[in-house]
């Protein structure tokens, strides 16, 4: 194994064809630009969020368009969690009809301690609704099969990190929020985030309601519910969602492993020729998070176009 003092030395060594970027959020832009502009093509899987600002995301998207020899996938791996993946299949099957509402609840533990506590400040993370919740905004877009129009949010830092101080600075990352997202096909999404809710049976509860039926996914119980309006409560089917390829769940319930397997198959040409989560997906998941953060600050709806034009 070789260790390098920095990413540029790694790129110059000629030993690798694929790079995984899992560094702190605020470093993504510089590292990605160096990878994309390097004379040797390197395929890249970049951990979410793509970047901390929409402007930087847009620059990455435009730069990557000039390198058709490089595959770039954004690490929004919640798509790969077995119950979420199962719910995606249910929605795509059309059994629920036209999707009208998507509700996602994440009730969990506070942010973990990371190197030099970089994740305690909005300037480094993009804000909680970018850093953490881009996952859920990506899923909302996927379920709605539409793009966001405007966002309204209410949130605060009420419990966590208030007694912490780093170089004289107190953390400013919010620990709870409600977010409403309106989509261009009339679908509405709602996020209920609480990061001081360790006493929860499930960390994520996802509900997708169409005009014919409703589907739900529960993590980590790994259970999916599917019911039709015509059959009522007694007709709800409950199914365990599992993937035999997962040998160790980890914090993301095996999704990171499945994400890497899929990206590798794309690189090898064994599956579809495009990454499952595109740079545009990454940009829009960040844009919704940025709009939500701004909505909390301004106390009003934020049009996505307002964010994209910044």
Entry keywords:
310 residues, alpha+beta, nine-stranded mixed beta sheet, 31% helix, globular
Uncertain segments: none
How much of the sequence is in beta strands? 15-25%
Distance between the termini: 43 Å
Give the biggest beta sheet: 9 strands, mixed
Shape: globular
Percent helix range: 25-40%
Give me the secondary-structure category. alpha+beta
Strand order of the largest sheet: 11-10-9-8-4-7-6-5-12
Brief characterization of the structure:
31% of the residues lie in helices and 23% in strands. It has helices spanning 7-12, 28-37, 54-65, 82-93, 122-125, 128-131, 134-144, 255-267, 279-298, 304-308, and strands spanning 18-21, 43-47, 72-75, 99-107, 148-156, 176-183, 188-194, 204-210, 213-219, 223-228, 237-240, 302-303.
Task: Please describe what this structure looks like.
The protein has helices at residues 7-12, 28-37, 54-65, 82-93, 122-125, 128-131, 134-144, 255-267, 279-298, 304-308; strands at 18-21, 43-47, 72-75, 99-107, 148-156, 176-183, 188-194, 204-210, 213-219, 223-228, 237-240, 302-303. It is of the alpha+beta class and 310 residues long. The strands form two sheets. It has a nine-stranded mixed sheet with strand order 11-10-9-8-4-7-6-5-12. The chain has a three-stranded parallel sheet with strand order 1-2-3, sandwiched between helices. The mean pLDDT is 96. 40% of the residues are buried. Helix 2 (28-37) packs parallel to helix 3 (54-65), helix 3 runs antiparallel to helix 9 and helix 7 crosses helix 9 (279-298). InterPro entries: Gfo-Idh-MocA_inositol_DH, Gfo/Idh/MocA-like_OxRdtase_C, Gfo/Idh/MocA-like_OxRdtase_N, NAD(P)-bd_dom_sf. This is Oxidoreductase family, NAD-binding Rossmann fold.
């Amino acid at each position: 194994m070789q260790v390098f003092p920095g990413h540029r030395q790694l790129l110059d060594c000629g030993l690798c064809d694929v790079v995984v970027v899992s560094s702190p959020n605020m470093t993504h832009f510089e590292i990605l630009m160096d990878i994309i502009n390097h004379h040797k093509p390197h395929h890249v899987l970049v951990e979410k969020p793509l970047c901390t600002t929409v402007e930087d995301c847009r620059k990455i998207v435009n730069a990557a368009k000039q390198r058709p020899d490089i595959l770039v996938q954004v690490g929004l791996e919640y798509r790969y969690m077995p119950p979420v993946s199962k719910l995606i299949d249910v929605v795509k099957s059309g059994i629920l009809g036209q999707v009208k509402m998507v509700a996602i609840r994440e009730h969990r533990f506070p942010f973990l301690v990371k190197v030099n506590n970089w994740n305690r400040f909005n300037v480094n993370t993009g804000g909680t609704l970018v850093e953490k919740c881009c996952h859920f905004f990506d899923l909302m877009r996927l379920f709605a099969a539409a793009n966001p129009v405007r966002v309204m949010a209410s949130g605060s830092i009420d419990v966590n990190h208030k007694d912490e101080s780093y170089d004289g600075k107190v953390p400013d990352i919010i620990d709870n929020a409600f977010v409403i997202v309106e989509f261009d096909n009339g679908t509405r999404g709602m996020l209920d985030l609480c990061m001081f809710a360790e006493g929860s049976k499930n960390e994520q509860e996802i509900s997708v309601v169409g005009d014919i039926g409703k589907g739900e996914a529960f993590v980590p119980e790994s259970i999916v519910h599917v019911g039709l309006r015509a059959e009522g409560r007694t007709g709800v089917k409950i199914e365990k969602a599992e993937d035999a390829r997962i040998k160790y769940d980890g914090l993301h319930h095996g999704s990171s492993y499945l994400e890497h397997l899929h990206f590798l198959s794309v690189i090898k040409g064994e599956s579809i020729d495009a990454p499952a989560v595109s740079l545009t997906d990454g940009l829009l998941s960040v844009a919704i998070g940025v709009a939500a953060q701004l909505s909390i600050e301004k106390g009003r709806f934020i049009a996505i176009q307002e964010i994209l034009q910044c």
